[in-house]
Design goal:
three-stranded antiparallel beta sheet, 20% helix, Deoxyribonuclease I, Chain A, alpha+beta, 303 residues, five-stranded mixed beta sheet
């Protein structure tokens, strides 16, 4: 599927990390066998599965997947990775930033003990700034993240609060409100927010600020396959054509728009879409086998 879509730069989410990137190199080799070559690979250890040694989830035990910085049964589970045909520059990793240090964050009320709040990182997986060297000179910086699902908790809405603040991190960073130099443009904000701005569970305000604010443009990637696959999801309020993930309708949230590629407002977008072929086709079977998430793509006219 990746070889068929043939992006120049690709962010993978939910990809296990290992120190020597053995799995990522092997995966790039499989893509090469299918006709796509990605000589430049990048990944960092994610917060998923990163043991804290304390009872983060408050279940009276330590060492479980809910006691890691991000939910995970082992170190590196479900990380992120960048594959590129273009050279990649030195990245900035913000994944160690503590949740309690986010200005105007929602950690209060999340039900964390004082001990948990003193070590809990904001990123459930990671927040990265990854420079891409352009053929004509200059740099395009990817702002990549993978948000926590805003479910699987109780009335304290710990995961919903964290998911909101993981999106809000980017606005705070670009506002200069954090102890990091704000990345300069041009930028592309991309990743799995695990949040639909209209449907499903979660607190969409921070995501809506990114989608509708002046810094980024939303090219509204769409597909006919998402509409045809919508099924009997009568509760859906948003545009079904914009959906990027295929969950069951009952029980489940149905199709949702949770994956995003948002270029800087000043960049020229020439095309955008979601690689979601219509049901019944050979390509649709390929997409469904690859992931419940569909590949979101944006073409940019860059120097």
């Amino acid at each position: 599927m990746i070889a068929a879509a043939a992006p120049d730069v690709l962010l993978l989410t939910g990809f296990d990390y290992d120190l020597d990137l053995v799995a990522l190199n092997a995966f790039a080799g499989r893509i090469a066998e299918a006709g796509g070559r990605y000589p430049h690979l990048f990944a960092l250890r994610p917060n998923t599965g990163w043991a804290t040694g304390i009872d983060l989830d408050g279940d009276g035990r330590t060492g479980g997947p809910g006691d890691a910085q991000g939910f995970g049964g082992f170190a590196g589970e479900g990380g992120m990775a960048v594959l590129s045909r273009l050279p990649l520059g030195p990245a900035q990793d913000y994944s160690g930033f503590l949740w309690r240090d986010l200005p105007d964050g929602l950690i209060d009320g999340a039900g964390l003990s004082a001990e948990a709040a003193s070590v809990q990182r904001l990123s459930s997986t990671g927040h990265w700034a990854v420079p891409v060297d352009l053929p004509g000179g200059g740099t395009l910086t990817l702002l990549a993240w993978h948000g926590s699902p805003p479910v699987f908790d109780g009335p304290e809405d710990r995961n919903g609060r964290r998911n909101h603040d993981e999106a809000a991190f980017w606005s705070r960073l670009l506002d200069g409100a954090l102890p990091f130099a704000p990345p300069v443009g041009p930028l592309v904000l991309l990743g799995d927010a695990n949040l639909d701005p209209v449907d499903g569970d979660g607190r969409p305000e921070a995501l809506e600020a990114l989608l509708a604010g002046p810094r980024f443009q939303d090219p509204h990637p769409a597909s006919e396959g998402a509409v045809a696959s919508d099924g009997a999801n009568a509760a859906q309020k948003g545009d079904a054509a914009l959906d990027t993930a295929d969950w069951p309708d009952d029980p489940g949230p149905g199709n949702l728009r949770v994956d995003y590629v948002l270029p800087s407002a000043g960049l020229r977008v020439t095309a955008a879409g979601v690689w979601w072929p219509e049901p019944g086709s050979e390509a649709a079977a390929l997409a469904g086998t690859a992931s419940r998430h569909r590949l979101v793509w944006v073409d940019l006219d860059l120097p």
